[in-house]
Design brief:
This protein has about 450 residues and is of the alpha/beta class. The protein is built from 19 helices and 12 strands. The chain has 4 domains: about 130 residues, Rossmann fold, CATH 3.40.50.2300; about 160 residues, 3-Layer(aba) Sandwich (Rossmann fold); about 70 residues, Helicase, Ruva Protein, domain 3 (Orthogonal Bundle), CATH 1.10.8.60; about 50 residues, Homeodomain-like (Arc Repressor Mutant, subunit A), CATH 1.10.10. The chain binds adenosine-5'-triphosphate and magnesium ion.
């Protein structure tokens, strides 16, 4: 595509000279005398570059640039300044001009600057495209994180999505195991086939088998109709068996057979059925220990553990906490129609906590705080006290806010003692409301 250049210059001789020179170099050119005319055509058509004089009859070239950049912030702008007005040039560069040229100038000089500006633009475009390609490769929109630990997870997802291998996802509760299982399915070529999720711990033991493998009519009292199981429904797709450690032992044998040759029988049936199902399992327990204790078949364990995928705990990838905070703030602000912004103290509180419940715990805290807060200043009050308390237990925390909090705590305790626990009196002495005192007592764990 030919580069189209917009020129805004009030001096007619200058304007025609520039226009001719640019056209001679193969560019398409539109030129205007007034800033306002230039800005309005810019909005209607695509341009690769804008060149504007700094002094125009109706506005300054800097104003032109601001208006144009408000419309398209990436458009390169060259400002032409008069001899002796280097201040204008500096100002223009500060405001985002790609270059400037001082009048009078030779056409060679001018053409060089134009060429360079267009080159920089192409480079920038390429850069953006390159970055986008890379992030496509190693990031998944639903899984937030940039830490080294989570990147390892991304790489593994990338590799295993294209295979049919059985994956065992392990990691603490709330680390995103189910999220990763879904991601693997939707990245794989089974993505248009079903993803069936079964939580093995959520069914009574005697129902797991019929749920997974289905039953024939009359297989047991109450089996009035034949019912296909989840494995049949997952045919050609993926089955996600969550909390696999809780699979009853009679079902473990059946699962082992599916893994060996893809076949099983419905409960009460004799015909072997064949399915093509990819199996992904997850556990937050140490499956090896189940094996040692004889509660989980060792042969099944090895079949399931073809590709182990470890989901790191949130405290092992603290770098991701700020990103996750942002993500969940957006999610819940949007859901509750609010515009709560976090103040720095609240961010510090959220960043210093250890999150035994991992991402789910962080998500729940933010959901709760956004739901309860009427505006940004009340967010912090709604952070659960045990989180604040944990922070203050850290001996190395000598930040001003922490030292101040300690002093506050001491003082409240002293006053409460002097009033023999009478909070109304204590609040009066402290010069705060009863509600504030109550909150502080709760946050500092001072209730006696
Ligand atoms: N990296 C992440 N980015 C965004 N959201 C996440 C991330 N990890 C987890 N979540 C969210 O946290 C919650 C818990 O995740 P998930 O259910 O996948 O955890 P889990 O490991 O399966 O937990 P459990 O062992 O308790 O079943 C979900 O709402 C999930 O969307
Ligand atoms: Mg889960």
């Amino acid at each position: 595509m030919k580069n189209r250049i917009l020129v805004i210059e009030d001096d007619e001789i200058m304007r025609i000279t520039i226009e001719d020179s640019l056209k001679a170099n193969g560019y398409e050119v539109r030129s205007y005398e007034k800033g306002s005319d230039g800005v309005s055509t810019f909005k209607e058509d695509e341009y690769s570059l804008v060149i504007t004089d700094v002094r125009l009859p109706d506005m300054t070239g800097l104003d032109v640039m601001k208006m144009i950049k408000a419309h398209d912030e990436k458009i390169p702008v060259i400002i032409m300044t008069a001899f002796g007005t280097i201040k204008d040039a500096v100002e223009a560069m500060k405001l985002g001009a790609i270059d400037y040229i001082t009048k009078p100038f030779s056409l060679d000089e001018f053409n060089l600057i134009v060429e360079r500006a267009l080159e920089v633009r192409t480079l920038r475009d390429d850069n953006i495209r390159l970055r986008r390609d890379l992030s496509d490769l190693y990031s998944y929109p639903n899984i937030i994180g940039e830490s080294e630990e989570i990147k390892k997870v991304f790489e593994l997802i990338e590799k295993i999505s294209q295979t049919d291998s059985t994956v065992l996802i392990y990691g603490e509760s709330g680390t995103g195991k189910e999220l990763v299982a879904s991601t693997i399915h939707y990245q794989s070529n089974r993505k248009n086939r079903p993803l069936i999720k079964v939580n093995c711990a959520a069914f009574p033991e005697n129902l797991v088998e019929s749920e997974l493998f289905g039953y024939e009519k009359g297989a047991f009292t109450g089996a009035a109709q034949r019912k296909p199981g989840r494995f049949e429904r997952a045919d050609n797709g993926t089955i996600f068996l969550d909390e696999i450690g809780d699979l009853p032992s009679n079902v473990q044998i059946k699962l082992l057979r599916v893994l060996q040759d893809g076949s099983f029988e419905r409960l009460g049936g004799t015909d072997a059925l064949n399915v093509d199902v990819r199996i992904i399992t997850a556990t937050n327990k140490k499956l090896e220990e189940y094996v040692k204790r004889g509660e989980f078949r060792e042969d099944l364990y090895y079949r399931l553990n073809v590709i182990p995928l470890y989901m790191p705990a949130l405290r092992e990838r603290r770098d991701d906490i700020p990103l996750l905070i942002d993500h969940f703030m957006d999610t819940y602000n949007c859901r509750f129609g609010k515009k709560i912004r976090l103040e720095s103290e609240a961010i510090m509180d959220l960043m210093n906590y250890d999150y035994p419940g991992n991402v789910r715990e962080l998500e729940n805290i933010i959901e709760r705080c956004v739901a309860l807060s009427s505006d940004s200043s009340t967010f912090q009050e709604n952070i659960p006290p045990h989180i604040l308390k944990k922070n203050k237990d850290k001996p190395e925390d000598t930040s001003l806010s922490n030292v101040a909090a300690d002093a506050e705590k001491e003082h409240i305790l002293k006053v409460l003692k002097s009033t023999k626990g009478n909070r109304t009196k204590a609040a009066e002495i402290l010069g705060i409301s009863r509600k504030t005192l109550w909150e502080k007592v709760k946050n500092y764990d001072l209730a006696q």
